[in-house]
Amino acid sequence: MTGAADCSLGAALRALRTELDLPGAFLPEVLAEAAEAARAPDLSAHEDATDLPFLTIDPPGSTDLDQAMHLERRRDGRGYRVHYAIADIAAFLRPGGALDAEAHRRVTTLYFPDDRIPLHPPVLSEGAASLLPGETRPAALWRIDLDGDGRAVRADVTRALVRSRAKLDYAGVQQQLDTGAAEEPLALLRDIGRLREEQEVARGGISLNVPEQEIVQQGGSYGLAYRATLPAEGWNAQISLLTGMAAARLMADTGTGILRTLPIAPDGAVARLRRSAHALRVDWPHHVPYAEVVRSLDPTRSNHAAFLQECTTLLRGAGYTAFDDGELPDPAVHAAVADLYTHCTAPLRRLVDRYASELCLAATAGKEPPGWVREALPALPKEMAEGTRRAGTVERACVDLVEAALLEGRVGELFDAYVVDVQERDPAAGTVQLRDPAVVGRIEGGTAPLPLGERLRVRLTRAGPASRTVLFAPA
Questions:
Q1: What is the pLDDT, as a whole number, of residue 1?
Q2: Which residue range forms the structural domain that includes residue 57?
Q3: CA 111 to chain CA centroid, nearest Å
Q4: Cβ-Cβ contacts under 8 Å for 95 (sequence gap 6 or more)
Q5: What is the tens place of the pLDDT at every residue in 420-431?
């Protein structure tokens, strides 16, 4: 990308913030309250767990660290114990205060190629509340016991002071595990992660291994790349899933909570997916469950990658459901997790997680949830739906913008692409994925049906940061 394109991209990113009416700078009263809270958090209920050598695993450069873990074998020799520390942002917030009100206005942290719009002021989210290495921090500390097969047999959560000893990234962790350099407790991440993946298979859950299109920095500019997730990322995600499932069970047992739910896909959507599998020459025998087929796919094969992209349609429709009457909602299960599940592991970046932690802390202590938590529950699903929608809009708009900036000035050029989606109503229109540059764009204007999963020569017909539009046509 040229310097001129950099300038137009920067201007377009600024215009995007204005167009989407996103939160701006924190108000002075919010910053003042945050600074005071950072100096004097409420640590009256926190036990001392600083003897446990926690570690964090996050993308390089991350400073808003929500989770830290310590893994060990159970002393009775019957399995494992997962210590999972979640940043205790509630120790810094006064219910009904300026910080609390601002968090409800923002709902989630929003990410841009050049910056982020944080949920909480950085003095907290990247400072006093973040589980940074070498710092004593308040946390909601989960202790989850697993048997030798990786099944959870006991879980509780208490407030504690913790201290991380190391800040690791996924690539470094993967290298240590692959070369045998990792010692316990890090080496146990692979063992426990694999057991939890086996448990996921047994209950019919699914994790889609779809290569992610991500914005990357290239010197002082930005580009796009497809990034396949590392096994260590999947194992790390299994620890978070385990905690979210344990939290949902605690809520279900007490009759008060907020769940992350996803309805089972209707028969029509599954039938459409079967037609896509047939078109893509993906073997799907009638007696084989959808989840088993997905686990057999190789995302490096173009037809498998296209089918994985089609599979994401069955995971749409996730939402949040609150309950406070002792009865579980219907549906209560998250179809992809294949169990009860809630979000509770990212309170520095997502509003609902703070409330989930409070509900589980009360459940473990055998107490009623705080009044401020119960009062907020009815409105939380709608707040989270709006915040999640806004975050998705920002993410997609940023990718569209970088795609358009990368291809600006190249209208008329030919590219090699793969057809990853075809519209049912208009088989001559759909979506193509370019290998280089890593662009996913709409294709239309042809007369023949698009060959789903096949290589196709395409011509760029439109590209411009101002409209955030990229359009192709069959060559």
A1: 38
A2: 6-263+317-403
A3: 12
A4: 370, 372
A5: 888 889 999 999
